[in-house]
Amino acid sequence: MAYDDHSTQSDVTEQLRSFQDSFIASRLPGWLKKLNPTHFALLSEALHAGLAARRQLCATFSRVQGIDEFARKHVAAQVGLNAPPDKLFLRQWYTYSSPSVHWTTSRLPIQERDWYDTPLLWAALQNFGKDHISMNADSLVDLAGQKIAQPSARAFIQACRSLDIGGKYQSHLQSVLEAPRSRGEGEHSFAESLQRQIRSMMLVDAFKARSDGILSELQLEWVIGLYRQGRPGRLAGAPVVAKKLQALGCELQQIVVFDVIDEGVLRNTSQAVLVYIPADPQGPWSVNDDLEGFARRVLGRRLRDEQYRKFFSRFVRRRDSQHFFSEVQKRLGDVADFATRDLDQHMTRDLDSLFQGLAARRIRQIKHDAAMIAVPVAQIDSAAQAEHDRRIAAEGWAGLTLASLFVPQLGVILLAVMAWDLLDETFQAAAGWREGDDAAALDHLLNVGKTLAMVAAVGVGGVAVRHAWQRAVMVDDMVPAVLEDGSEKLWNQDLAPYVSQPPPVTAVVDAQGIYRQDAQSWVEMDGAYYQVSERVDGEWYLRPHANHSPQLEHNGAGAWRLWSERPEQWSDTQRMFSRLGGPCARLPRSLVDHVIAVHGLSDLHLRALHVFGKAPEVELIDTVNRFLIAERVADLQRCLRSGEQIADRPLLLKAHELPGAAGLADEGLAQVVADHRRQLFQMLYEPLDVMDETTRPLRRAFASLHQLAAQQVLAEASEAQRTQMAESGRVPLAMALAARERVLRIRVTRVGEGLWIDVPQTFDFARAILKLVQGLPGVPADKSWHLIDAQGRLALPAPSNQSTASSLLYQDGAFWLRDAQGNDESTPGELFETLADAFSTAERAAMGIAEPFAVNLRQAVARQWMTGRQDIESLFGGD
């Protein structure tokens, strides 16, 4: 991001913070903005309590097994089936009176037989009474309708009664939902967490009702007292009693009627009723003069809406559902909009220990509803079950579908709290946050809401108020996310949910770093793989998660990142290097610093590549490829010496091609690889550096130009220059100058590479090393060499006054020393080992280089490279 002369970093930070807060403000519900600012402290307390209770409930409820899975596991384990139970059916026969007439029976009805199939798991869940009649023809059948020999239908029915899946599931629910409080600090039992959730929701909904004008200030204060004390107490001096609601002959669950008693001389009457329906989308709180007014003008009108009836079903036990909603349809199905109907409403006995009682009743309802799906043998009631089956059919469910959705749907209901709704409306994928992040985001959200409320109430400057509270860093770091449905939320840029398995080994990767196989595509980012898709606009996106597909940006050469990432702020050198993608991403972190040193790269250079979306230089890519090859060779040596399994089979085959390697293994082959490691390196590198017809003229003219660099020179040349070179075979001047510049960089780079990896050593390498050695601390001023190659070329000639200078000879990658009299002082070998022979014990001590001298001399020269790299550029630049 660029800044003009009048902008500062703090200005930009403030603008970004203002954006976050404005975004949050636009997502806040209207009632929150109108709330009295003095109520925010208590609202925050209740919301945080609800959020904490939700977290505890979520942790506990996650241990509840789905009914279908529970049944499948027990049936498969104990009934002795030869096929998966969800692939089988129970076929039952029955007789009926046929309407047809036959001459042999005259007017008497004919008895005929037919059959029906029930999914085996559903039959096991519904269970069988002890008086169940099984016909001889009953059997188990597969998907094709073929009879299963074993077990028989009667054996299966008896096994189901003995197994009693419903009874076992009730025990499972009891072990989870009614388990005693954990000994862990801050842990609560399921019932205690439910109490905290109900208490907090009741208060938060009351604040909303007050803001919407449903509750008066006096009634809100009464609810606050209820929240704090846990009992109804008095409202405006009148006693309040919490009662249960009964309508249409059914006791409704979770709904609380607060009856404000008008105490009379002869009898008490209702002064008013405050009814609380948890999570009601049309308003949880309602106030009426009496219960009949509530039933006719509130509940009766709401139940006319089909969607509301689906919501309201949570308050009706499954055993009562068919009766209740049939009655609703009879009474309200065809009533005029202006008319009202009585719902046979009654207030039943008082609710003892309000919140504790509500939690206990909620758990009982869960168990009762589960018993209508997975029926315990002791509770089989054919009449009630028939009513329930009719309700399932009316709702359009299949039995097993209902069983599979029972726990997930119950979880949605149990975990719905206002605090979570506020977060989910504003923030993307909040469910995946770490513990504590949701509380911090909620604090930030409420502070924004309080700011708006204060501005609306007293006109205080928004910025001044905003600076008065502690900001959540995680919220400030969020970015807007456009979801699949076009809506927007704030997103914390967490990519963990998008990580996929690595692409198959058969996937083909292109120049952009996209792995493709069939219709699937993957990219690698920061060490992880992600599935991606390209849209019609040519942009790439991550595959959707939670209705969100983040957009990606790339440099065309394997470096991928989120559009929202800000590489100008990156500071981790190794990570910036690895995120260049391609071979850079595969380079071990232990080698990154060496590659950076070879090329003299800075953080600024790496950062600029990411900011401007540029591909790394081809010379850098070539070096990385060479380091990766050297690492493969070194790994092979380690595995051979340690006896480990060798995964790199192609390299092992190459190693057996080395001189003297035939028939060797382990330690013997490891020694051959060590002796010929540079030769093995070259065998692996040459296939990456194959000359083609397009680059042949360039590479013939410039022997040090590798294939990647030659291709880059071609790519940067004009069409006319490429055509001229192709037709004449001669390199145009502009291309020659560009190639010469790249050759210089390559020659310098090769020297740096040879300091950290074992690559073939060249005459250029020796020239540079001697130059660097002469600059080491402690090296005598008169220490010098004549460097001579096989063709008699002389480089770095010793000063004329030093007639005793040794000659360093080079031929075919090997070096040896020769004295002034022409006598060889060493055998051909590696450069640093050869140079080690040229230093006396006193000289070694003066240099401060310990044994093994050759190895440590190489390390000392590598350190010298950091400051002497430009000297080598000057040395080669003068050629």
N- to C-terminal distance = 43 Å
Uncertain spans: 1-12, 460-464
Beta-strand residue percentage? 5-15%
Shape estimate: elongated
The beta-strand count equals 24
Sheet with the most strands? Answer: 6 strands, antiparallel
Q: Cα-atom Rg, whole angstroms? A: 41 Å
Number of alpha- plus pi-helical segments? 35
The secondary-structure class comes to alpha+beta
How would you explain this protein's 3D organization?
By secondary structure, the protein is an alpha+beta fold. It starts with 8 loop residues before the first helix and ends with a helix. A hairpin with a 2-residue loop joins β23 (806-811) and β24 (814-818). Among the domains are: 67-163, no CATH class; 190-395, no CATH class; 495-616, no CATH class; 690-760, no CATH class; 762-877, no CATH class. The strands form 6 sheets. Strands 5, 6, 7, 8, 9 and 10 form a 6-stranded antiparallel β-sheet that branches. Strands 13, 14, 15, 16, 17 and 18 form a 6-stranded antiparallel β-sheet that branches. α24 (618-642) packs antiparallel against α26 (666-675). The protein contains 35 helices and 24 strands.
